[in-house]
Input
Amino acid sequence: MTDTSRSGLHELSRQECLDLLASQPVGRIAATVEFLPFIFPVNFRMYGDRILIRTVSGTKLHAALTGQVVAFEADGFTTDGKSGWSVLVRGGAEEVTDPKELEKAELVPIHNFAFNEQPGRIVLISTVGISGRYYDHTEKK
Output
């Protein structure tokens, strides 16, 4: 971690960001629809260095099918809010359609809170643009 200011914020390395993303089951994806931004909570898993989500037809899938750059964010923090982290990803979204890749991606376990059954479409988000920060405002004794 690199100290970025006197405020207790520390910049995270790419690997630290990927490791933190892998530790969380829920994040948020932001996509643009008809020039308006939309943000959706999603269950996800890391798939190598890409973010894997399962979805149905709709905004998230539309973003993947049209090759949009999306934003993805996940975070974690202590219950008192005095320390935590945030990782932001900006990357292309694409639907997995290759049969061999689809077979491997379907094995990734994701519990979806929004659907009663497993959605059948898989979207991958590249992590080309990734940044993160960690903050710690706990009192040092």
User: Anything to note?
Assistant: The first strand starts at residue 2 and ends at 3.
